[in-house]
Amino acid sequence: MSHIIHDSGHTHTLTLQEPEKPQLYRELFPYTSICRTSFDEVLLAPRPAEQMRITDTTFRDGQQARPPYTVKQVARIFDFLHRLGGKTGLISASEFFLYSARDRKCIDVCRARGYRFPRVTAWIRANEDDLRLARDMEFDETGMLTSVSDYHIFLKLGKTRKEAMEMYISLAEKALEWGIIPRCHFEDVTRADIYGFCLPLAQRLMELSRQSGMPVKIRLCDTMGYGVPYPGAALPRSVQRIVRAFTDEAGVPGAWLEWHGHNDFHKVLVNGVTAWLYGCGAVNATMFGFGERTGNTPLEALLVEYISLTGDDAAADTTILSEVADFFEKELHYKIPYNYPFVGRDFNATSAGVHADGLAKNEEIYNIFDTTHLLGRPVPIIITDKTGRAGVAYWINASLHLPEDRRVSKKHPAVGQIYDAIMAVYEETGRTTSFSHEEMEALVQRFMPELFASDYDRMKQLAGELSANILVRLSRNKDLLDFSKQACARLDAFTREYPFIQYCYLTDTKGSLRCSTITDPAYKEKYEALPIGYDFSTREWFTMPMKTGDLHIMDVYQSHFTGKLVITVSCAVTDENDNIVGVLGVDIQLEQLLKRARALQQEAATDEDSE
C-alpha cells in the first residue's frame, strides 16, 4: 500500500487540556432552560470538499428506532440505495451492526450483491472484542464509538480526558495493525471542548495515519442536534467552525471527514449541508430520516440538495423515491406523513382555492419542479366547484390506484352523484377551499363502496398470510412423507403449539385421508364422520395444491362441525426431488388466529431470516 501524505498547512501542535472538573458549558446548555446560541463574529467563507458524498446509516442508527428489519427487507433497502445513488458513487457506504446472527446474515446478503457502492462497513463499540468481530468478518473499515464531550467522558465513562484519549488511540492503532480503516465517531461533538480535547485527539489520529500509510476517518456526531449553521456562531455549536477546525488546524482531509446529525432542533438537513459547504466530505443519513429520537438527516433530501448544489442531474435517480416510499408503507407499515416532502401523499397538492385555480392553469406556478418527470409523482388533481365530472373520475382512478379494468368514466352514475354532492356544498355554504383527500374519500366510499377493501377483506388477507407461514414450515418436515405414526404425532404436536387450528389433516396424492388431529375434544365426535381413508379428492383445498404445487388459501366460511368462522389453508407435501406425495391442510379458527397476529408476524420474520 502506498504511503498517504496530507499536508494541511498547520504548523502548531494542539495540546490536550486536562481539567479537574468536566467542561459542561452551562452558559450554553443550562438544561432547565432551552439551550443558548452564542456568536463571536468569526466569519468563514464556504469551501466545499473536492467531492461531496452521502453515507448511509439506515441499518444502524435508523434501525435503533424500530423493530429489526428482516434480512429480505435489508436486502431490498440496500438495492434501493444502490439504485438511488450507489451506481454513481454518490451514496458511497452503508454501515451495519455485527452482533446478532441476523446482523451477520444481512451483511452477507448485501455483500453478495457485488455492488461497488454503497460499500458495506461496520459499526462497533470502543473495545477490542468488538474490533475482533470486524476483523473476523473481514471488514476493511469500521466505525468506532469515540465519545468526546465531557458529558460522556466524565459522567458516562467515568474517565479523565487523557484516559479516554489513550483508550481511543489504542483501539485505532489495533485497527490499523489489523488492516482495518478506523472511522472514529466523535460522539457529542457539539457539546465538546473542541480545542481542549477534540483537535488534539484528531491530530494524534492523523499522526497514526501517516505512520501506517492508511486513512483514519472521523465522523463528527451532532448527537443531540445542538449544531447551528449560522455565520458568526461560536464553538462548540457552530457547524462551520467545527468542520474548519478539523480540516485547517488538525489536518484532517475533507475526504476523511463525515457529519452525522440529529433533528432535535429541526436543523438536521441544513446542518448537514452546511458541513458539506465548509469542507466535510460526507454527510451520514437514513432513508426518510428514520432514526432514534427525532431522526437523522433524510437521505432523499441530501440527494435533491446535492443536485441543486452541483447541477449534476445524473448523480441520483430520484424517480426511485416513490417506489421506496411505497415499500416503506406497504412492507414496513411505516406511515409517511401526507405532507412529507417528495414522497408524502399530498406534498405537491394545494388546498387553497386561489392556489388550486393557478395550478389548474399551469402547474409550474405552484409545483416545486416537474414532479412527474423527476419523482414519477403527477400533481394530484384538486377538487373544487370548477373541476367537473371528468375531474371527479380522474381523482377516483388516480387516488385509489384503480387498475385499467376497474377504472370509472365521467359517465358513471355514481360519479355524477359525487359531483352533485360536491356542487351542493359550494352552493349552500359559499365554500372557497378545495375538497381534501379525506373528504373525497368519504364521498367515494358513500357512493361507490365496492371500490374499497372492507375490514373483512383485510382480515381475510391477514389470516391467510399468517397461517400460510406456519403451514409451509410444517409441510417441510420429513416425518410427513411416509404417513406413519410419526406423521400423526407431528400433526398432534403442531396443533398443540397452535391451538387456533381446529382441524389438521394429511392426504396422499389420491385425496385419501392418512392422518388427522382435532384440537378440541368437544368436537371429536362430529369429526369422526371423516375417518381415515375418507375421500377428499374433489375438495378445492386438495385439488388446487395438486394442480399447482403451491399454497392455496380458501375464503372464510362457517365450519359445518363447530359453527365457528374458519379459513382453510393447504399446501403440497413434497419429497427431496420436489415430487408431490400428499396434501396438508388446516382449518383455522379466525378469531383465535387474529388474537395471536402480532406474535405470528414476529415468528414469520424470524423464520424468514433463518432461511
Describe the structure.
This protein has 611 residues and is of the alpha/beta class. It is 40% helix and 14% strand. The chain contains 21 helices and 14 strands. It has helices at residues 71-86, 101-112, 128-136, 150-156, 161-177, 194-212, 239-249, 268-277, 299-310, 320-330, 353-361, 371-375, 388-399, 413-429, 437-447, 455-475, 485-497, 524-527, 540-548, 590-595, 597-610, and strands spanning 53-56, 91-96, 119-124, 141-147, 181-187, 217-222, 257-261, 282-285, 501-508, 513-518, 552-553, 557-558, 565-574, 580-589. It has an 8-stranded parallel barrel, surrounded by 7 helices. Strands 9, 10, 11, 12, 13 and 14 form a 6-stranded antiparallel sheet that branches. Strand 6, helix 7 (239-249) and strand 7 (257-261) form a beta-alpha-beta unit. Helix 5 (161-177) runs parallel beside helix 6 and helix 6 (194-212) packs across helix 7 (239-249). 41% of the residues are buried. Residues 1-9 have low confidence and may be disordered.
Topology at a glance:
Blueprint: E1 53-56, H1 71-86, E2 91-96, H2 101-112, E3 119-124, H3 128-136, E4 141-147, H4 150-156, H5 161-177, E5 181-187, H6 194-212, E6 217-222, H7 239-249, E7 257-261, H8 268-277, E8 282-285, H9 299-310, H10 320-330, H11 353-361, H12 371-375, H13 388-399, H14 413-429, H15 437-447, H16 455-475, H17 485-497, E9 501-508, E10 513-518, H18 524-527, H19 540-548, E11 552-553, E12 557-558, E13 565-574, E14 580-589, H20 590-595, H21 597-610
Parallel strand pairs: 1-2, 1-8, 2-3, 3-4, 4-5, 5-6, 6-7, 7-8
Antiparallel strand pairs: 9-10, 9-14, 11-13, 12-13, 13-14
Helix pairs in contact: 1-2, 5-6, 6-7, 13-14, 16-21
